[in-house]
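We give this protein:

***
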Amino acid sequence: MKSLLLPPINNPLEGKARTPIAFIQAMVIAYQYYGIDPANALALAKISPAQLSNARNRVTAAQMEIMSAVAMQELDDEALGWFSRRLPWGTYGMLCRASLTSTHLAIALKRWCRHHQLLTEDLVLKLDIHEDQAVLSCELNQVPAPLQEFCLVTNFRYILSYACWLIDSRIQLFSATFPYPAPEHADVYPHLFSGEIKFNEPCAQLSFDVRYLKLPIRRDERELNQMLQRAIAVTVHPYRRDRLLLQQIRRLLQQDLSKNWTAESLAQHFHLSLRSLHRHLQEEGASLQQLKDEARRHQASKLLHRSQLPIKHIAQQVGFKNEKSFSRAFRTWTGQTPQAFRQLS
């Protein structure tokens, strides 16, 4: 047996077991298609026959990483039996290299979609760009039914994780839709995809803020070579930093200043833990109170300059309970009272 490249994992059983055993079962089906025994891969990943047979079981991210790496090499198929032809070991690394020289994310994703179709027409990826959102769709042709869910989820994770890595930013999704009923392990999907999760939809799609497409590529050849040594880990573990989060929070606050957004409600809205939200803000040198004040100051200044609304009404529109507290805050922000600011505008 040829030597295998294994991820440097000491104990595959460490960590939370969240990955559905159904994804491991799909890889076992791929072994069966090729007439190869999966026993070695299962043993290296420390997955027992009893564990494999129970559809309710879960495995750790490390077990998933080991099983995937071994299966891709033993089958010499990075597509893991999904397509009518093999995608030999190293294929997805080639796709990464083909888009690395792009100037910004939109070009990189278009290249990935186009180049993937040169490899196989069994899966068609398409990027549509609208005024305020981008939509990445995936259509399956001739993929065996037992492998369709694993194929869709994995390919979406491949391209999404690589896109996040390219721009060094988490990409917050608006939604992720899938053309099949909610599986028994549907609770794992929010760990794989942010935003609203929908099943029984007409097609498989990921939608996200179009502004991510304008972000520049931040990686080079040296970093790519390092990443490819643990590429599956990049796919398995969600990216944490979001370079657009501050802009998204600003826009959300400005949409309705009368709503009392708290750190807890914002974290829930963006599908983040409270700790992650605070970490993001700290990395950007901002606080929620600063962002609220910024949004209120911007809207108040605009209303004072462009309207004849009474100051009491402006105070209410920008989230203050009374005119006195608004005037005090406005003077702190600008060094002027609202009345003086309006007269000088």
In short: The radius of gyration is 25 Å. Residues 86-236 form one domain. The longest strand covers residues 133-140.
